[in-house]
Amino acid sequence: MNKRQLTGAMLGVAMCVMAGAALAQTASETLQKIASSGVITIGHRESSIPFSYYDNDHNVIGYSQDLCNKVVDAVKTRLKKPDLQVRFIPVTSQNRIALVQNGTVDIECGVTTNLKARQTQVDFSDTFFVAGTRLLVNRQSGIKDFADLAGKPVVTNAGTTSERILNKMNNEKQMKMSVISGKDYGESFTMLQGGRVQAFMMDDVLLAGARTMGRNPDEWVVTGTPQSFEAYGFMMKHGDTEFKKLVDDTLAHVMTSGEINTMYRKWFESPVPPKHINFNFPMSEQLKQLYAHPNDKAFD
Q1: How do the domains of the chain map onto residue ranges?
Q2: Global pTM exceeds 0.90
Q3: Which fold has domain 30-130+230-292?
Q4: Among 254, 148, 129, 257, residue whose Cα is nearest residue 203
């Protein structure tokens, strides 16, 4: 082999090594799909204030979406695609897992609870919020806690932890509640405002968000002993460890750097669209500890 041939051979080897390194960086099935299509697809909610919802211009905004935007930026950097397109697909409690499993969405950035039962179907990111399941009722209803729901109609969102808890409560305590399942937060709150049900059970922070959309928000109050605590995480395709690591590393940096505090104040301690009402929902000690030590543990 002459010098020119040797140089050519070495160049070929070097190119193979570089190609292999690039492939190793995007070994994730999800990242390969995104790199190939030039598009990352985000699953979002339509009315989960203040996490993921539409503003008056039909843009997706919220606490979840701000965190999700950090993930999108990290994917752009990893793939060296600053012009990566972002596609938004609305999801519901009923279809969100299936849309992640079949690859319709690359990451679901909404308000999904990390449950051990769900971990066999999808992967969850580090937890970004913790909520308690309580009740939203009219101030004049006389309902203070769950025992007061006996014999009354109550609504929750279909496919949620709250739905499971209400049905279990009915079976075990013979409360004879009429449990109605709404499509989403908007529909469930509409039922409550219209008098079709006496209470709306869901995560306390989401109930606080729903009441801000009422004709008179002060008519509604969040009450009741929490029946469970929900650890919210972003959903991704099961088994894609490389993509999950990128998401977790991104969220962990936002949390431990303190950047999360600015985001939190923006969405929970300041006026938020569309009605510019302040939730006045201070960060709990549990959440502060979580942000100091990020993890993806389910609570159940």
Answers
A1: 30-130+230-292, 132-229
A2: no
A3: D-Maltodextrin-Binding Protein; domain 2 (3.40.190)
A4: 129
CATH 3.30.420.300 correct for 132-229: no
| Domain pair 30-130+230-292 / 132-229, same fold | yes
- Between CA 255 and CA 195 the distance in angstroms is 41
Percent of the chain surpassing pLDDT 70: 91
> For the chain, how many residues are written?
300
Structure tokens at 121: 């179907």
The neighbour count for residue 119, using CB atoms within 10 Å, is 14
82 exposed, middle or buried (CB, 10 Å; 0-12, 13-18, 19+)? exposed
Provide the pLDDT for residue 114. Answer: 96
Return the higher-pLDDT residue of 19 and 279. Answer: 279
Q: Write the CB contacts of 124 (distance below 8 Å, at least 6 apart in sequence).
A: 112, 114, 118, 233, 234, 235, 236, 296, 298
Angstrom CA distances, 62 to 48, 211, 235, 274, stand at 8, 16, 17, 11
Confidence of residue 21 (pLDDT cuts 50, 70, 90): very low
The tokens for 63 are 């606490």
Give the pLDDT confidence of 41-76 residue by residue, as tens digits: 999 999 899 999 999 999 999 999 999 999 999 999
